[in-house]
Structures are given as C-alpha cells and as structure tokens.
Amino acid sequence: xxxxxxxxxxxxxxxxxxxxxxxxxxxxxxxxxxxxxxxxxxxxxxxxxxxxxxxxxxxxxxxxxxxxxxx
Length: 71
Hints:
By secondary structure, the chain is mostly helical. The chain is built from three helices and two strands; from the N terminus they run H-H-E-E-H. The chain has helices spanning 4-17, 20-25, 46-59; strands at residues 32-33, 43-44. A two-stranded antiparallel ribbon has the order 1-2. The longest helix is centred in the N-terminal third of the chain and has 14 residues, at 4-17. The chain is globular and about 35 Å long.
C-alpha cells in the first residue's frame, strides 16, 4: 500500500508503539503546524513535533490511535 493510507498506517503504528523516531519520521522536515485560534502555538519543523509527542507519551501513557473510516 502506498500514498496517504500507507502514511496514516505508519503514523498509527508509530503512535501505538510509542515509537517517537518513527512517528517524527512521518512528518516532513519543513512541516508547518498552524493554529489560527492560538497563533503562538504554531510551529515549523520536526523538533517541535518530537517535543510535543514526547510530552504526550509521557502524560498519556495509554494513548492509542485507530482509523475508524477512510474516505
């Protein structure tokens, strides 16, 4: 499987395995997160993704992702 579904599958797998390296690899080097309601929370790049997910894994140890519908 290629394309968006494969990427989502990698993201889900990395999240459920708490594999920070695999999760961060799902994001482009120049990934841009824009949060219009909270512009100060916007960021660019993989390093903030890593920091955010390290905190999520630490504070929500039972986090699990599941795709319930495609399309």
